[in-house]
Amino acid sequence: MAARTAKVAVSLPVEIHARVEAIRHEFGMGRSEVVVQALTLWLKQREEQELEERYVRGYLRLPEKATDLEGLFQAGLSSFVREKW
Q1: I need a labelling partner for 59 at 20 to 30 A (CA). Which of 17, 40, 52, 83 fits?
Q2: Domain, as residue range, for 22
Q3: Among residues 13, 66, 9, 60, which one has the least CA distance to residue 35?
């Protein structure tokens, strides 16, 4: 079954339109494909930004203590192989 779509009309600054047209022609892409890729990337970036903001809020609410990091530090040290130089 084909994906459902919705038509939209957007206004772009002339400079952006020209750049997009040149690039999409170079790659043989349709306008819809370009817009879908751009919006997909934008949505992913927004999601990542929200996750980062949630992490910061959580960290500010419950910051790590030095004792919380000791196990992580020891695990990192154990990954080094002792070699004779």
Answers
A1: 40
A2: 14-78
A3: 9
